[in-house]
Amino acid sequence: MSHSTTNTSDVLALDSLLGSEELELREKVRDFKDQRIRPNIARWYEDAVFPRELPAELGELGVLGMQLEGYGCPGRTAVEYGVAAMELEAGDSGIRTFVSVQGSLAMTAIHKWGSEEQKERWLPRMAAGELIGCFALTEPTAGSDPSSMASFARRDGTGDDAGWVLSGSKRWIGMASIADVMVVWANTDDGIRGFLVPAGTPGVAVTPIDAKLSMRASIQCDVVFDAVRLGPEALLPGAMGLRGPFSCLNEARYGIAWGAMGAARDSYEAALEYAGSRMQFGRPLAGYQLTQEKLVNMVLEIQKGTLLALHLGRLKDAGKLHPEQISAGKLNNVREAIKIAREARTILGGNGITLDYPPMRHANNLESVRTYEGTDEVHTLILGQHITGVPAFR
Description:
Its cofactor is FAD. This protein folds into three domains: 3-127, Orthogonal Bundle (Butyryl-Coa Dehydrogenase, subunit A, domain 1); 133-234, Butyryl-CoA Dehydrogenase, subunit A, domain 2 (Beta Barrel); 243-388, Butyryl-CoA Dehydrogenase, subunit A, domain 3 (Up-down Bundle). It has helices spanning 3-9, 20-37, 41-47, 54-61, 78-91, 93-113, 116-127, 243-277, 289-317, 323-348, 359-371, 376-388; strands at residues 133-136, 152-156, 163-174, 181-188, 191-198, 204-208, 220-230, 279-280, 283-284. The strands form three sheets. It has a four-stranded antiparallel beta sheet with strand order 2-3-7-6, with helices on one face. α2 packs parallel to α5 (78-91) and α6 runs antiparallel to α7 (116-127). 52% of the residues lie in helices and 14% in strands. The chain contains twelve helices and nine strands.
């Protein structure tokens, strides 16, 4: 990216708020995006392909479970994770989604709630991208309300050697068809618990959801568990109740606040470049007041959203970040990113509906980002309860 482009994307000089290590990491991930994602993403999106060689490359880049300590994990800060998520989503939301599912969801669940044996078995190879994880929480009839999940695991036997029998179904499970291990959440007689289900376990059926208009360079699946027998070692011992999955969701939601601004920035930069070279009525589009207003509104919201994400990151690194603050970041930044991607498409005219340009692809992807990890409505209600003291979920 040229110096002038960087300046036109950072009117408020927000880069001055980042330290040298944060900037160095960002450039490293940006280079990866420019070399590996940008030249290929239109084809991956058109063909609905998630490239299987990418996990190992992302592991080598150091972005898988990057905010986790030990067990071969990178141990980077929340802000460093954020700037990496922003650059990856500037490439494509589907690629950032893989990093989020792998690190913020599956690896975080094992790291936070798993036994020492589970951590040693899975985390080092997941951090390297050698093994892939998924996070099975959402169900066909329980999306925004995970407390209503119908999947159930009953005790199989008595004593310390007692295993489990898991039955139920899940939907929209990212990476499930290529996962080496599933983190599965299910009701039990003792409340909601988490289980590790390795690939190839009898009774597990995984079906990719193919007919998608969004996240086409990513994988989402239906999963059915038909009386799946699990040993006692499958249980995540530390996770009890919804606190287990919610702690992982908050990690993912935090990353989205950064990532969405990456998609927005990439859309804006594509529109800005096009407006400077596309001639209409004898002058470039960028020379018209209406076009300039669009570009100004875009860059203002990107700068505000990036500043919000950075503030959340500093709070997180200080151990002071609260769930309602994460909701504010996720709700605002995804909502604004969709508006920016759509507005950028209008500057591109008819050319904007092709995969030669990224805004419409970003807009389509962001429809998924807007829905997963909590819809606008859910985050509005979280914030509403915080500011009024009255829960309005039911």
